[in-house]
């Protein structure tokens, strides 16, 4: 009986190795299915617009206990312990923003 379970275990192990090899070999079958990358990427005027579901890192200088990461709620607002609610949805982040 123990010989049967050993053979059964080896068969399962070989089948898993074979399935893994087949999955890895299938990764290279369609190399041209993705579109080519653009020759240049324009990032000079990029500015991210905050939306619901984003996480904001708030850093308070010289007060690490007030620094935190907060999520933007579905209504576009976020809350902190000292400030009740602030609207974040539609605000832009980036270096071109005044006061950055």
Give a description of the structure.
By secondary structure, this protein is α+β, with helices and mostly antiparallel strands. It has two domains: 1-29; 49-93, no CATH class. Helices cover 25% and strands 16% of the residues. The chain has a two-stranded antiparallel ribbon. A two-stranded antiparallel ribbon has the order 2-3. Strand 4 (77-78) and strand 5 (86-87) form a beta hairpin. The longest helix is centred in the first third of the chain and has 25 residues, at 2-26.
Question: How is this structure best summarized?
Answer:
The chain has one helix at about 1-25, and strands at about 50, 55-60, 70, 75-80, 85, 90-95.
Summary keywords:
100 residues, alpha+beta, 2 domains, two-stranded antiparallel sheet, two-stranded antiparallel ribbon, 6 strands, elongated
The helix/strand series, from N terminus to C terminus, equals: HEEEEEE
Radius of gyration: 26 Å
Number of domains: 2
Distance between the termini: 74 Å
Structural class: alpha+beta
- How are the strands of the largest sheet arranged? 1-6
User: Which parts are unreliable, with pLDDT below 50 for 5 consecutive residues or more?
Assistant: none
> Which percent band covers the strand fraction?
15-25%
| SS element count, helices | 1
- Tell me the major beta sheet: 2 strands, antiparallel
| Average residue-wise pLDDT | 79
Characterize the overall form: elongated
Q: State the assembly state of the protein chains.
A: single chain
- Number of DSSP strand runs: 6
Proportion of helical residues: 25-40%
């Amino acid at each position: 009986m123990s010989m049967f379970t050993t053979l059964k275990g080896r068969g399962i192990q070989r089948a898993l190795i074979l399935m893994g090899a087949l999955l890895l070999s299938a990764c290279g079958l369609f190399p041209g299915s993705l579109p080519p990358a653009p020759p240049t990427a324009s990032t000079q005027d990029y500015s991210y617009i905050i939306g619901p579901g984003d996480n904001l890192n708030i850093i308070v200088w010289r007060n690490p206990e007030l620094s935190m990461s907060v999520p933007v709620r579905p209504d576009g607002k976020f809350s902190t312990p000292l400030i009740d609610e602030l609207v974040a949805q539609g605000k832009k982040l980036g270096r071109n923003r005044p006061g950055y």
